[in-house]
Amino acid sequence: MGRYDLARRIASLDPEQDHLEIYQISSGREFPWDYTRALEFALFRTYCVPSISKLLAATGEFRDRPQRRYDDTALLMGEMAAHGYDSPRGKEALKVVNRAHGRYAISNDDMLYVLSTFVYDPIDWITRFGWRSLHPHEKLAAFHYYRAVGKRMGIRDIPDTYQSFLAFKLSYEERNFVFSTTNQEIGQYTVDLFAAWFPGPLRPAVRLGVRGMLDDRMLRAFGFDPAPAWVGGGAEISLKARAYALRFFPPRRRSVLGESKRNRTYPGYPGALQPSDLGAPPPPDDLPAEFRRSSRQGPGDIGMP
User: Fold this and answer.
1) Is the peptide bond before 270 cis (omega within 30 degrees of 0)?
2) For residue 135, what is the DSSP state?
3) How far apart are CA 255 and CA 250, in angstroms?
C-alpha cells in the first residue's frame, strides 16, 4: 500500500453518503494522533464559555474526577466512530452520552457549539500540523458525521451546510468567549490534567506549553497569562517537523479507533467492558436547581458535562 492510497480511496467516496467510512479512515488511520490532540483542545475550547464552565464547576466532576471525565468522553466518542453510531456498540455509547446529558439543563446553542468544535477544531489542527492536506471530502465527511451524531443526541437546528455550521461556530465564539472565574477554574483543572500525564519535573513545562498553544481569545476568556512567544513558536516548529517526517512513514494498516491503551481509568479497555460501563455518576444532591433539567425541557435542552 502506498503512502497516499488511503487519500485516493477517500477521494473516490461520496462525503455525504460515505461519511462514516471517510471519517474512520481519516481519524483512525491517517491522522489518529492529530485527531486526539485536536479533540482535547476542542473540549478545552468549550470551557471558554461561562454558561458551560459554570455547569461543569457546579457538578464538581472536573475538580474530583477530571481523568475519568476525559476517558469517558474519549472512549464513548471512539466507540461511535469505530463501530458506527447505528451499530449495537455505537447505539449503546450514544445512550450513555444522552443519559448523562439528560440530567442537566443547558441551552441548545451551547450543545450545538460543542458539537461544532468536534467538526472544525480537528480540521484547523490538521490544516496547520497534518502530514498532508485534508481532502475536501474529509472536511465534508466530518461535518456529515457529526451532524448525524448530533441528531441522535437530540440537538436541534443543526445547520445543513458545512459553511453555515462554521459561521455559527465563529459567531458563537465572538459572542460568548468572555472571562469568568468558572472558565478559569475549569481551564486550570484541565491544564493540570494534561500536566499530570508527564513526570513531575516536566509538568511546569507542559503547563507553559499548553498556554503557548492557546490563541488570544482563549487566553482572555480563561484569564491566563500568555506564554513567552518562543514557547508557541517552538511547539509549532516541532509539530511541523513531525508532520514532515510522517510523509515518509508507511500507511497505517489498521484503524486504532475504539482502542485506548493509555486511558488511565479503564486499563485494557474494552476487554470485558461495554460502553454501558462508562459514564458520569448522577448529579450531586446539592446541584443548584438552575442546572437540573426540568420535565418541560426537550432533548435539545440537555448539556454536555
Assistant:
1) yes
2) P
3) 14
